[in-house]
Structures are given as C-alpha cells and as structure tokens.
C-alpha cells in the first residue's frame, strides 16, 4: 500500500527541535516523507512532490488558490513557526477541504513552565535579592512585605485563557490560587472545566496580584493593556508577559516598573533582540528573559508528537485535532499578526550546545 506523501520543510526550525528521534522515526515509518532536512527545500524538489502531497509541514508555508488546484491529494497544511501566517489562502483551503493547522499548542508545556518560574522569581523577589547579594546589600531573613508575596492562595489573572494559560493553571493548582480571566473566546464549558471566573479586563487588572499575559496577538488587541489599564493594577502587582509584547503598551509597562509600583517579568519584547540602550535593561524590578520560554532541550517535541498524532488521525477518519485549527471566524484576526517567523534570523544565528 502506498504511503501518504508528506512534504517536511521545517526551515528555519530544525528537525531535532520539533521531533524526538522516536517520533521522527514513526513519521517516516507511517508516511512517505519528502525532503525532511533542516535546509530549505529546493524549488524543483517541492514542485515535483507537490501534486502527490497529502500534507505540507513548513515553518513558512505559502499556499495559493492556484497551488491548491495543482495538489488534488492535499489534506493538510501545518505551520511550525508558531502562528498562522498571512501567506495562505484560508478560504480556498476551506473550500477544498484542506485543513490548516498551527503548532502553537505544542509550546504550552515549556512556556508554562517558564511562566511559573518567572512568577515565583518575581513574587518572591529572587532576582532583586540576587542582585543585592552581588552588591553586598542582601537582606538576611528579610520578609520584604511591601513587595514580596506568596503564590499560595494568590489572586491570579490571565489575559487570554488558551493553551498556555490552561497548562499554567495546572502547574499553579498546588498553590490553590483564585483564578480569573479575560478572554472573549472563553466558553462556559472552559470556565467550568478549569474553575476560572470570567471577567472584564478592567476588573481583572484591578483584582490581580499576579497577571499573566498569555493571549494570542490579533488585529484587534494591539496595546490592549494600555497605560490607563496598567494604572488599574494594585500596588506591587506582578505582570508576567509570555505570549507577545503586541498585547501591551510596552513603553508604559516599563515606565510603570521604573516607578517601583509594579514588578514585571517578560520573555517577549516589541523589538527583538532588545536594543542595548533600551530602558528595560536597567530597571531593577524587571526580570528579563531573551525569548527563551520554549528554548529548552525537548521543549518543542510536543509539536512533533501532535503532528504525528493528527496526521494519523486524518488517515483513520478521526476528526479530533491536537494542533490548532484555523477557525474561519478567527483566522482573519490572527493570520500574519505577531509574525512568529520574525524570530528566524535570531534562531539561525544562535549557538546551540
């Protein structure tokens, strides 16, 4: 029996980044994997494989209406950058029954883990005391009640309650926090399942001692958390910025941290790499992480597991998906916004050990 053909062109990502060896071997066993190398697929190899392809896996997929006409067997396009790109004709794909899937859910475990670490470090003043220690000004046995707090029973807020927030809720469960969220797409079923209270953004900011920003960027939520919104936060609240800086008025966030009124921990920034003279670099109560939330060995392997599982599900007639689906009511709001591929030059220039 002929195996379904899958074009695997992960560049600018790498195979080892996306797949464990076991999962990659299983993919090659189940499917006829075309290319499957870290280098960009040559155009002649792509053109030859496209007419028989059942799926395209790519960090930067381009699929036009005309291309779809040349690929009668195509069932799925899977992007592995981390967000739906603007280079796909989603309406044409939907009309032909071609699923467009995003690997975004596959980051949830590693990013949530980093989010918890940043929250603990910020809430307990770990980085501030670390720097004080280096300068000989550490406070032995000092409680710092004006700034530090425990996550046990804390008021935890989420702006956006998607995959990362849900994973974080599980990690936070042993602390027995009160959890509220602002998310226009949150359903009653989701609220009941995760025991989260839905509220207006203004009310969430007024209430939260620790606020996680985990929403996906859309064409409607740029600078959603404005200077006026930041002013609603309680004194000494902690803001943990995990998804995209797109969601926040970043200059206002830095300014609020500079006053000492709030603490901030950020893994994402409006410009990356962050300029050397950016004021955030010099704010003592601003924890800085250079977009490393998913950057841990095996931290993205869940993506490969989901790809294999969903491709096998398609072949067996199972309609459930672990990857994110391009919901027609939402994809126009997110496609190309907060372009994940902008990190490609940094990824290709990194030094992995």
SS field, number of helical segments: 15
| Computed Rg | 22 Å
Residue fraction in strands: 5-15%
Shape: elongated
CATH-defined architecture of the largest domain: 3-Layer(aba) Sandwich
The level-1 CATH class of the largest domain: Alpha Beta
Major sheet summary line: 7 strands, parallel
Percent range of helical residues = 25-40%
Series of secondary-structure elements, N-terminal to C-terminal:
EHHEHEHEHEHHEHEHEHEHEHEEHEHH
- Mean pLDDT score: 95
Identify the CATH homologous superfamily of the largest domain: NAD(P)-binding Rossmann-like Domain
Stated plainly, the CATH topology of the largest domain is called Rossmann fold
Largest sheet, spatial ordering of strands: 8-7-6-9-10-11-12
The overall number of domains is: 2
Give an overview of the whole structure:
This protein is of the alpha/beta class and 353 residues long. The protein folds into two domains: 5-103 and 297-348, Rossmann fold, CATH 3.40.50.720; 107-288, Rossmann fold. 34% of the residues lie in helices and 15% in strands. It has 15 helices and 13 strands. The strands form two sheets. The protein has a seven-stranded parallel sheet with strand order 8-7-6-9-10-11-12, with helices on both faces. A six-stranded mixed sheet has the order 2-1-3-4-5-13, with helices on both faces. Helix 2 packs parallel to helix 13 (301-316). The chain is elongated, with a radius of gyration of 22 Å.
